[in-house]
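Thread: Newbie trying to understand structure tokens

Hi all, I'm a second-year student working on a class project, and my supervisor (Dr. K.) asked me to get a predicted structure for one chain before our next meeting. I've only ever worked with sequences, so writing a 3D structure as a token string is new to me. If someone could post the tokens and maybe explain what I'm looking at, I'd be very grateful. Here's the chain:
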Amino acid sequence: MKVIGVTGGVGAGKSEVLAYLAEHYNCRVIMADRVAHQLEEPGERCYESLVALLGTQVLTPDGRIDRQKMAARIFGDTAMLEKVNAIVHPAVKDYLLEQIARERALKKFDFLFIEAALLIEEGYGKIVDELWYIHADMAVRRKRLKQIRGYSDEKIDSILHKQLPEEAFYEHCGVVIENSGTLASVYQQIEKELGEYQCQKQ
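---
Reply by user tm_fold:
Sure, no problem. This is what the structure looks like when written as tokens:
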């Protein structure tokens, strides 16, 4: 089984790529954001630490962490954000390492894809076999974010300011999937990459 990390800037179209992979290949796809949300649920490994840090005011009446309240608690507080990340990010990485070991032992899938915005920053290059960068031109990304998510230029600028420059993605990722054009073109690129691996495997 080959473990592939999938990353890229906001609006690059990672979701479309992952949906295609899940439908057409013998693989498992893990989204790091969803893992983080799972680990923040009551009884999971991040819950108690987050409540101790943020206070019970971020909880819903049934005791779950309210993400909007948590975001408001963190907003503008860099030190608090760093403390939250210090709880969540290592827990997510531990979970992913456990899942990689589990899937390698089960030998059920040909590929395990891990999608995360911070694959490079969090050192996932040492965990996965290969890093894929989903790239799209900035104008295309802005258009997608406005049309699909309804983001304003100000919000897009704020998000982009926090993300790595393109040069960093090119430096760390061995495969670049260009997603500025048609989905058909994206699928051809994916098939080329995974087809080559299948040939090596044989």
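A couple of things are worth pointing out once you decode it. Residues 1-26+109-202 form a domain with the Rossmann fold fold (CATH 3.40.50.300). The first helix runs from residue 14 to 24. Feel free to ask follow-ups in this thread.
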